Amino acid sequence: MPGMSNAHLQTLLPRLLRRRLMLQPHWQRLTLPDSDFVDLAWSEDPAGARHKPRVVIFHGLEGSVNSPYAHGLLQACQQRGWLGVVMHFRGCSGEPNRLTRIYHSGETGDAAFFLQWLRDEWGTAPTAAVGFSLGGNMLSVLLGEQGNNCLLDAGVVVSAPLMLEPCSAKLEQGFSRLYQRYLLNQLKQNARRKLLVWPGTLPVDLAQLKKLKRLRDFDDAITAKAHGFLDATDYYHRCSALPLLPNVHKPLLIIHAQDDPFMTDEVIPDPALLPACVTYQLTRYGGHVGFVGGTLRRPQMWLEHRIPQWLSTWLDN
Question: Which one of 31, 234, 242, 314 has the fewest beta carbons within 10 angstroms of its own beta carbon?
Fold first, then answer.
């Protein structure tokens, strides 16, 4: 159980402890039905591992295989004898996507297509998915939308903003504003690259992009407009996963930390409304996608033990 009690240290420490990739990913580009693409980073060449249990990793906002939680879990899966893969959301693998859209907290179409392709291309094997932060909300939405028809055997969701509106507001308060500034800068840099390579593929131009000051401004001007929502409020309400959790039919573990600087108590589900297949774990400490146990001298990445341990019931049998 994570033991260090400073939420910001918990949130930032993995970036210091996991600076370098601990394995050499096998890269593959997957063409989507609309002719756009997503890039896959595998723990090994899937051609020689089609018999192995699979773990799909969905990263957070502006994350990638380079995110500490992603490549840390990818290596943990490899060590367990599982095949791991990070499905990068559009535009998050270092190359801008081509179409007038990006990705968002409720965009499940690419993930659903990928899971079907995974089965069609590499055959049937026990398959789980792990979603972090934005990717965790997206995975929860997918599980709620698809119910019993979901192709996954189990899922894990970590530090997910299951109610988007209050989480967006939280990032405008106090110390959390530093995280908002960092994330907004990342989003704007990515959007700028996209506009320079593919002009006209976002609802704003470079001058308008520069003026955005909050994540809500970005979601109002770009996320909502590019994906058919009225505004940021409409997007937040329609894509929050919490109301969909009663519709989940596959085993799901949700992990939150009480001290998460990105979250409010509104993301904590009512246990009475959760189906029996959903396990909820709320730790006292952990920050946002941190969950570092041990001590500063001997830190332990708790998620890299907890997630495989929980998934082994479905992947190792």
Answer: 31
